[in-house]
Specification:
The complex is a heterodimer of chains A (308) and B (252). By secondary structure, chain A is of the alpha/beta class. Chain A contains eleven helices and 14 strands. The model of chain A has no long low-confidence stretch (mean pLDDT 86). Chain B is an all-alpha fold. Chain B is 82% helix and 0% strand. Classes of the chains: A alpha/beta (308), B mainly alpha (252).
């Protein structure tokens, strides 16, 4: 495990408006970090600071050990960046564009050709490599943006909303590509699509109004939040007042005569007692399922809780 | 250094990908060739009188300075159009992050853009110089004077390009950049007219005027003061461009 990104106490102000407020995090090799937040939460600003497009008002960033401010060139060599709008020259062909990107990163001619062939194959661009970028669809343009970010085989890949504007099939391909890249690189991707994080990322961070609300691995997150909802099916209608009396039960939602959703506290799981009560009352328990908490639930809970 | 050349080469090539560069070359060549031919005509009509004069102006004096002087005026109009898109368009098309997140310094970006446009203007310069050189078929030229004119026009071009580049850095829209550059250049060009009206030379105005320095070089006088003026002018605006782009990253 090598530490690829080390961001400490980052802040960024636009005039008096604080876009990012005291955010610290790190990224190791082999991790895919999902940056989650509503529009305007500070995702893009953070990414722009990581890529050296914006200077931080306070705090420091080290990329693979190089400080972004003082060792900018070395830090940027370790970095592939796809901004929220792919930075494409529309008057060039895909091949010309990628060759220019390779030159900007100082790849020698021979190495550049190999890198371009590889990046094109990986992003599915080989069939269109001689076409003008202006004439390609948005999905292809997005893929050229990704190809440009992985071209020089950087240690860190930063992708700002990489699946925007793609069709479902392309989204699946790009997500698979990101997972693959995550095995031997460090990847940061920002998104407001919640399923994307669950599908592609190993770690997740939730940013809201410029502040980092949560930072955890996906597995740790699921374990920590736990299941808080039980779904119960019985043969006969249930007297909810009896169940509400059981310690740990917070609320009961009646779906229909036979089905209930029971919300319970996270530190006390009352499923044993519920089972016993229902059987003792003769309502005939047919099903008791712990409902998994989705990232969506966590996200809404955290961001709404923060606003209140 | 290789990054700088990569940026310059792309800028140079992309000028030729749009009709702009071709149009500029064609229009400039047409106008200047017309002016060149009228000067040749003048020389032919005056030839007998000139031959009778002691120390009278020669072929080079009659043809080269007016040609290069007119080229300067036409370029004053054209250069802002070539430079207006340099940084402005990159910002509008959101391609600037590509350069800013690559291991390229802001100095490389600015100098690369500058050299790209200067490359195209050098092609213009070669095309202009070839016209008087064609007179060698039937005559002789004062090469020293021609050389001074070529150096003068090249310095003038780099001054025009640097100010256009700076305007492109600070403007939001390419048209604004072109107007800004054109306005500033025209003001500097005509600055010493006021002194001519009052019949009383104002040394400051005279020193600031681009035209005055260009005319000194055109007369065949390669003085340090005039060359220094153009180098300081170009360097100053390049430095301002670098400073401006670097400051855009910083929190306001």
């Amino acid at each position: 495990m090598t530490l690829l990104i080390e961001a400490s106490h980052l802040s960024r102000y636009y005039g008096k408006h604080c876009a990012v407020n005291d955010v610290s995090f790190s990224l190791n090799n082999g991790e895919v970090l999902g940056f989650l937040g509503v529009n305007g939460a500070g995702k893009t600003t953070t990414m722009q600071m990581l890529s050296g497009n914006l200077a931080a008002s306070a705090g420091s960033i080290r990329i693979n050990g190089f400080d972004v401010q003082n060792q900018a060139k070395q830090a940027k060599q370790q970095l592939g960046y796809l901004p929220d709008v792919p930075p494409l020259y529309r008057e060039l062909t895909v091949l010309e564009y990628l060759r220019y990107c390779a030159q900007l990163h100082g790849l020698a001619k021979h190495a550049a050709t190999a890198a371009i062939t590889y990046a094109q194959a990986r992003c599915g661009l080989t069939p269109v490599s001689k076409r003008l970028i202006a004439n390609l669809s948005k999905g292809y343009q997005q893929r050229i943006g990704i190809a440009q970010a992985i071209l020089h085989n950087p240690k860190v890949i930063i992708l700002d909303e990489p699946t925007v504007g793609l069709d479902p099939l392309q989204i699946r391909e790009i997500r698979a590509l990101i997972r693959e890249l995550g095995q031997d690189h460090g990847v940061i991707l920002s998104t407001h699509i919640l399923t994307e994080v669950a599908e592609t990322c190993s770690h997740v961070q939730i940013i809201h109004q410029g502040q980092l609300l949560l930072s955890d691995s996906i597995a740790g997150l699921q374990q920590r939040m736990g299941s808080r909802i039980l779904q119960i099916t019985t043969r006969f209608p249930v007297d909810t007042a009896v169940l509400l009396a059981i310690p740990g039960v917070i609320a009961i939602e009646t779906l229909n005569n036979q089905q209930l959703k029971i919300q319970h506290s996270s530190d006390h799981n009352p499923s044993q007692q519920i089972t016993e009560t229902i059987i003792a009352a003769g309502w005939e328990l047919q099903e008791l399922t712990p409902m998994p908490t989705s990232i969506e639930d966590i996200f809404i809970q955290l961001t709404e809780g923060h606003q209140a | 250094m290789s990054n700088l050349l990569a940026i310059a080469a792309r800028e140079f090539k992309s000028l030729f990908l749009s009709p702009l560069a071709w149009t500029v070359l064609a229009v400039l060549q047409l106008i200047l060739a017309y002016l060149f031919l009228t000067q040749v005509e003048t020389f032919v009509t005056l030839q007998s009188k000139l031959a009778a004069m002691v120390n009278g102006p020669g072929l080079t004096d009659i043809i080269v300075p007016p040609l290069f002087g007119n080229a300067g005026i036409v370029l004053l109009l054209v250069t802002p159009l070539l430079t207006m898109r340099l940084i402005c368009e990159e910002r509008r098309n959101k391609t600037l992050p590509l350069l800013l997140s690559a291991p390229v310094s802001i100095t490389d970006i600015v100098l690369g853009k500058f050299l790209g446009v200067l490359g195209l203007l050098s092609v213009v310069l070669v095309l202009i110089t070839v016209m008087p050189l064609s007179l060698l078929i039937g005559g002789t030229l004062d090469f020293g004077k021609l050389f001074a004119n070529v150096i003068g026009l090249f310095l003038l071009m780099s001054a025009f390009t640097s100010i256009g580049l700076y305007m492109s850095c600070i403007a939001v829209h390419p048209t604004v950049a072109a107007l800004g550059a054109f306005g500033t250049l025209l003001l500097l060009w005509i600055m010493d007219w006021s002194t001519a009206i009052r019949d009383q030379p104002n040394p400051l105005m005279e020193y600031l005027s681009i035209l005055r320095h260009y005319q000194n070089l055109q007369s065949g006088l390669l003085s340090t003061a005039d060359i220094g003026y153009f180098l300081l002018f170009s360097g100053g605006f390049l430095l301002l461009s670098i400073r401006h782009l670097a400051s855009e990253r910083l929190p306001q």
